[in-house]
Amino acid sequence: MSGVSCWRVMKRNDAVAIERIARNETKKMTTHERQSEEIEALVCLLEVYGADRTRWPARERLRFASFIAEEPEAQRLVAEAAGLDRLLDLAPPASKEREQVLAKRIMAAARVQQHAPHRAGQASSTISNIVKLPAWARRPQMVGAFGLNEWPAAGLLAASLVIGVMLGSAGTLDSTMQEVAEVAGLSPSDTADSQLTLGEDTVSWAGEELL
Amino acid sequence: MAMLRHTVAAKRIVPGPRGAPAGGSQDSEDAALLAAVAEGDEVAFRSLVDRHLPGVLNLARRMLGDDAEAEDVAQDALLKLWRSHDALEVGPYGLKPWLRRVVSNLCIDKVRAGRRLTVTDDVPERTEPADQLAHLEAQDASDRVDAALKDLPHRQRMALTLFHYEGLSQIEVGRIMGVSDEAVESLLARARRNLKAALRDEWRELLARDETQ
Fold first, then answer.
1. What is the predicted pLDDT for the residue at B196?
2. Considering CB atoms only, which of B7, B54, B203 is closest to A87?
């Protein structure tokens, strides 16, 4: 049955059965034919739902109950499917160590969110991203090597950096800088000139280095 | 095929890995913790994280097949819980269904954003997993199952995770993934067929062991 969609096979079988009923040919179907159709349908059922019959549709559960009880081939198929289900259940859960590190990270991010101004979802998700390390840095060996269990502190450091940049770009520090310039005896025009001079010096320095 | 349109009963919810009771007290404990979180109780939130992180993380790991991405999704889901606590109502199964929905949606979004959902329904099945098996020979059965699951196409892995590991019905899986019941059946069948091929040796070994017992 591999390569053919299971539901297509089932649909085809249903269509054939309906056609037979329409032609009144049901009696001509041999026991062997019927059995092989049932086996085919059972294979499909097991592939989709697995061996746990509580997961099967009620109608199919009823349909196959006696067939499975009586047919050794059907029992073999169910046992095989149960084997695969058991293998799937062997899939390991996440390691407790990583889980604990992640729990700490989540708590740190929650704390940052709690103390940050709540501006819609975007701000929160930005903060959530700040407290995330890039994927490569979260590999177990990196966590061990750099002591990244202390992640909350790093997260807060990064958050303060971002807040600093935001304050700077918002221009809230301009007036403070102006006051400092006046105390130093520099008028705004002086400041501009000195900046220009400094710029020229820098250019000439750069030129010297190139020579 | 009439079977396709029948609702399949969702798997009975069994106690979680940490022995947390299913249903009943789970919902009342979740509700009490959530009420405490609404008061700004950080310890209560930590309890909710401890209680739900394993399930959330395992679901994301199995859906995405990538540990680091799964951790990001788990973090986002639990922080969403932290932010939305006042708008949430705890249902009869506690917070688990809400978290499962959030995690599933985040995983699907992540896969779509990375343009990893380009798999069509007619992807040819891998018939020769010999190289893969050879590479995995040194690992134990559990790791091999994990690797085989990670190796599945995304949509097959998502459908199998939601149906087999999360115990959702076929209709619920279809709703979460935004596909038809028939597509879910097809994905589940192909996922199992691929796993059977990838885990052929382990599977036969297991069956042989059963026969001798």
1. 93
2. B203
